[in-house]
Design brief:
With about 290 residues, the protein is mainly alpha-helical. The protein has one domain. Helices cover about 50% and strands about 5% of the residues. The protein has ten helices and three strands. A three-stranded mixed beta sheet has the order 1-3-2, with helices on both faces. The longest helix has 25 residues.
Length: about 290
């Protein structure tokens, strides 16, 4: 069994994060439902036990992950972090072309996760709150199990809930790792074109490209939440009323433009948001005290 102290600490973190999730989305104008059932988490003391469980329940090899939420079981499974687990290279996921698992919203089995350290409490909180966000989204009315969602919806939502610490409601305390990756990707001109990005339901197997996709999803969800909140609420409500099943990219695009308006208009506003992010980063760098001794 997982260590009692880790279970106790994790339970407290999840209870606080559960409350903060509802407070954060309430401040953003969402009216979320409360699950009548207890939400289940399974914590494994060893990676091997986690791997066996995932293979048996999900029917696929998830050995490069250390935690995931499953829409099939409505459970979160995680591994208690340890120094040994840090030596595992999860960035080199085995290639399984076309393989889909019931993780969040039809993502590929190559889903990238941030490596977590048992001694780094900030990173472990980020991991836990990310998976909790997936579970709460599918149990609060934000998302509906069985419905196909674009990658940016599920992962954009969850990455915006990767708190480095639980200091208060809102999204101000989220991990800076996604922000830093976004700024670098934007500066290099490597962001995915918006028309392609908004209809994607899978991420590439490449770890480097996968990180960039996650950073872009983080930023795009934040952009819509802050700049087009009412449209985002209506869009998610529309999707939650859809029947289960796959939809084509053409349908996904039409659903998006019906809710947010013309793609040209959204792209112009999105680019302005990205430029503002870059300017803020540069301003912070310029105002930082110099470490050079004169």
């Amino acid at each position: 069994e997982a260590g009692a102290s880790y279970i106790s600490g994790t339970s407290r973190t999840l209870e606080r994060a559960h409350q903060q999730f509802y407070e954060a989305f309430s401040l953003a104008g969402f009216d979320l439902a409360r699950s009548a059932d207890r939400l289940v988490w399974i914590c494994f003391p060893q990676q091997s036990k986690f791997d066996e469980y995932a293979l048996r329940v999900e029917g696929t090899d998830l050995s490069w992950l250390d935690g995931y939420y499953s829409t099939l079981t409505n459970r979160v499974a995680v591994v208690e972090p340890s120094p040994i687990s840090l030596q595992r290279d999860r960035t080199d996921a085995p290639s399984k072309s076309g393989s889909l698992v019931n993780l969040i919203a039809n993502t590929q089995s190559h889903e990238e996760v941030l490596p977590m350290s048992a001694v780094d409490s900030q990173m472990d909180v980020a991991r836990l709150t990310h998976e909790l966000a997936h579970q709460l989204a599918f149990n609060s009315g934000l998302q509906k199990r069985g419905v196909m969602y674009p990658f940016w919806v599920s992962e954009g939502l969850a990455t915006n809930f990767e708190f480095e610490w639980l200091a208060g409601p809102g999204f101000a305390n989220c991990s800076t790792a996604r922000h830093d990756c976004l700024v670098k990707t934007h500066a290099a001109g490597d962001l995915v074109p918006l028309k392609q990005f908004i209809v994607q339901t899978k991420v590439p197997a490449s770890a480097a490209r996968s990180r960039r996709y996650y950073a872009q999803a983080w930023a795009f969800f934040q952009y819509l939440l802050t700049e087009r909140g009412e449209s985002l609420r209506n869009y998610l409500l529309r999707l939650s009323n859809l029947p289960p099943g796959q939809r084509t990219a053409k349908v996904l695009l039409r659903e998006f433009t019906d809710s947010f308006g013309s793609l040209d208009e959204v792209e112009s506003s999105w680019n302005a948001f990205l430029d503002h992010q870059a300017q803020q980063t540069q301003a912070s760098a310029d105002s930082a005290p110099s470490t050079i001794q004169k």
